[in-house]
Write a structure and sequence with these properties.
alpha+beta; Aminopeptidase; 7-stranded mixed beta sheet; two-stranded antiparallel sheet; 25% helix; Bact_Acetyltransf
Amino acid sequence: MDGLEVRPARPTERAAVDALHEREWGGPYVVAHDTRHDVRTLPTLVAVDGDTVVAGALTYHVDGDGLEVVSLVAAVPGTGAGTALLAAATSIAAEAGLARVWLITSNDNLRALRFYQRRGMRLVHVDRGAVDRARHLKPEIPLVGEDGIPLHDELVLERRTAVEG
């Protein structure tokens, strides 16, 4: 997709963003670090193509010295929407004086690990059993994830901004 524009989501794009979250997460709730996030209530960036079609969405939360990416979803992987959204979130963090951009993924999500590490993020922590605990907040989380990998742990990745925190 040429000519992607990244900007804050508009109210008229809510349905398209919700549809992406429904497809990726089964609804508007994401559980990470023992917290149930309603992505509809979080600041949201969208990547839109020249036709104003939502190509991806990123929701985030600012806390302490960092910007946490709560959800990053591309309508079609490999189009550059995810990369553009992550770059925009990193710029927002730096402009706000935040020292890092960070996120959580699950131990089975090899595609996400590849994506984030190729974009400068580093693995900084493993929370053993976090996904097992998350099932208390979101019982529909499967026991086995992508590639047949048992789903148990959360992996924390971060990228430091130019701001020292």
